[in-house]
Amino acid sequence: MISIGSLVIMGAQCDGLVVLESVRRMAQVDPTVRPVGFLDDGLPRGSEFAGLPVLGRLDEWAALPEEYRFIPVLHKFRQMPQRVARILGLGVPEQRWATVIDPKAVLAGDAAVGHGSYIGPNVVVPPESRLGNFLSIRAGASLGHEVVLKDFAYVGPNCVLCGRASIGRASHIAAGAVVADDIRVGEFSAVGIVSAVNREIPPYSLAMGNPARVVARLDGTGQ
To answer: Which fold would CATH assign to domain 101-211?
Structure first.
């Protein structure tokens, strides 16, 4: 994996702080890792957040030094269609996306993680996992063998994804949820907090409960 070097976090507020904390832990192990600031559409340029400067809006990434790399903080339930389009529409070259893996995470030697992804502390990634780009896997999540996470998926704190579970593109698995072996969650779907999924969840669906049942359809526009 390419060294992170100087890192800019795209997005601040709550999730930005989560990623920043992992970056600071990485810097204690690797002194070449250096968080340099935020890009954020909602904060004024020149202001300060969490001890780092706000360098501008997301669109201004190209004005920053070429050695700077970026990680997006984009996951928000019901807004994923717009946020996926926003990140892809920036036109950031693939080699300038960084992947942040907290030093307290445990990854199998053959685990491959795509660019622009975040893996939090105490996450367990076993052998033969297939992890896409722009993921967010939060603290304490446990993945079973041969799990598949498609691009832009979110796995909340303390989730359990059992063996060969497949989480679709831009889907959201909320904190404490469990997805059983061989179960597929469709793209742009969401699983509610502490839900237990033991059957396939169709795309653009909201599922909740134990066992989880589809309680609403998401129309693909974030509504």
So the answer is: UDP N-Acetylglucosamine Acyltransferase; domain 1 (2.160.10)
